[in-house]
Write a structure and sequence with these properties.
With 437 residues, the chain is of the alpha+beta class. 45% of the residues lie in helices and 19% in strands. The strands form three sheets. A six-stranded mixed β-sheet has the order 1-2-8-3-7-6. Helix 3 packs across helix 9 and helix 12 runs antiparallel to helix 13. 44% of the residues are buried.
Length: 437
């Protein structure tokens, strides 16, 4: 990996012109677009593919179909059963990973240059012609059901599910992407075939690659890999206007420590204030031990091992969320401190010292993300989905440096809503109950 790390270092040390030039835009004859960072010093390539829509495309009454379908993509395809597919992949020293989330189906692949064609042909089988064989379906279904049942006993999973239900209601975001025991048990092979047709289509795909491959080779690879997918998939869901009220929702659960998820409406990724909000959150709850919430809740009062907050701009809704866990007899105090810090940031903003420290942290950490072909490809495909341009890798830190204390004061007043900060608490919290405020 040393040549890759050296390449990454040179990309950032050589300045904006070189870094921007290293990201090539590849247009294929079939109309696909991909971003490429070509790096021939190591003979392998990382390929990242994202299909927009994800588990939110589940048909009514078929919750969990997309998640189960994605779990089956490497469990037999074309002429291979599950074991044959795994043996063929391992014989090529290739790596394939398939995942699903509320907004995307993701495919990650790594393969050697010497057997690239064979690896891509095998990957194509899994995307174009998955078998959904009965034995494989039942095996993966059992794994999914086990995970769902485990989540029913996990305070964090319970808190997330309840918060989603409260905020999103009947929208796909309002139910868990894995589905329920009942919905997953009822899924048929026809449901999986329909989910495959709905989610994996040419009209919603984003592609990036990094490694030992030329633009011409990548173009041919993509058309060969994805050209036989359906032209269009299922319609995307509607957007949600998030609305919460201040207060606490308690979900009783037998545990000595309560878990609290909290939040309200956030910002879109393309909002002009996003960078100011990002820096502000680093100071409030996203900067580890230096953040205000950690200082006030953990360091000064010893109420928790960890507390944090984060911006979550999804495709169809925006949230500003946080999490804390504390003993049942102390979670109320932790919540009170978080509310106070939320209101303090909204009214007072940040100090110059806090701003300088946050900028140093954020600008210094960014280049470290590009630590190999895989991370580079993942970052590039994420940039595409966020509507960014290739020069973002060189301008991102400039945006961070440009944020002023006045910007944060303005954004804090706009974004932070103490009168809409909702807490969902799972446990046996003392002195807390379902009540506003």
């Amino acid at each position: 990996m040393k040549p890759v790390l050296a390449f990454v270092a040179s990309l950032f040390l050589a300045g904006p012109a070189l870094a921007a030039a290293d990201i090539q835009t590849v247009e294929t004859p079939m109309g696909f677009t991909a971003w490429l960072v070509e790096e021939p010093s190591i003979p392998f390539t990382s390929l990242e593919i994202r299909f927009e829509g994800g588990t939110s495309l589940d048909a009514p009454g078929k919750r969990g179909a997309t998640n189960l379908m994605v779990g089956l993509l490497e469990e037999g395809a074309g002429e291979y059963d599950a074991r044959g597919f795994a043996e063929a992949r391992d014989a090529l020293a290739a790596s394939f990973r398939y995942d699903s989330g509320p907004d995307t189906v993701s495919v990650s692949a790594k393969f050697l240059t010497e057997n690239r064609d064979e690896a891509v042909a095998l990957l194509r089988e899994s995307l174009i012609d998955p078998r959904f064989g009965e034995d494989a379906v039942e095996r993966v279904r059992a794994q999914v059901l086990s995970g769902i049942r485990s989540d029913l006993k996990d305070p964090d999973a319970i808190a997330n599910a309840e918060f989603d239900r409260l905020v999103f209601g009947d929208h796909p975001y309002g139910s868990q992407p894995e589905g329920t025991v009942e919905s997953v048990t009822a899924l048929t092979r026809d449901d999986l075939v329909a989910a495959h047709r709905a989610a994996l289509a040419r009209d919603r795909v984003y592609i990036a690659a990094a490694g030992d491959i030329s633009p011409e080779e990548l173009s041919a690879l993509i058309d060969r890999l994805l050209g036989d997918l359906p032209a269009t998939g299922a319609p995307l869901p509607e957007d949600v206007d998030v609305a919460t009220t201040a207060g606490t929702t308690v979900v009783p659960f037998d545990t000595p420590q309560s878990v609290a998820l909290f939040g309200h409406k956030g910002l879109k990724r393309d909002d002009p204030d996003f960078f100011a909000a990002y820096v502000m959150n680093t100071i409030l709850g996203g900067g580890g031990f230096e953040a205000r919430l950690m200082t006030e809740v953990r360091e000064k009062r010893g109420l928790t091992y960890g507390v944090y907050s984060y911006l979550l701009p999804m495709d169809h809704a925006e949230l500003y969320l946080g999490r804390v866990a504390s003993a049942n007899d102390r979670i109320g105090e932790a919540i009170s401190v978080i509310r106070d810090e939320w209101a303090k940031m909204a009214s007072e903003g940040v100090t110059d010292a806090e701003l300088a420290q946050a900028k140093t942290y954020l600008t210094g950490a960014y280049p470290l993300r590009f630590d190999g072909n895989g991370p580079i490809a993942r970052i590039l495909v994420g940039m595409q989905m966020d509507g960014l341009t290739p020069d973002y890798v060189t301008t991102r830190n400039d945006h961070i440096e440009a944020v002023t204390a006045e910007d944060i004061a303005r954004v804090a007043t706009r974004l932070l809503q103490p009168d809409a900060l909702r807490f969902v608490v799972v446990g046996q919290p003392e002195g807390l109950e379902d009540a506003p405020g």
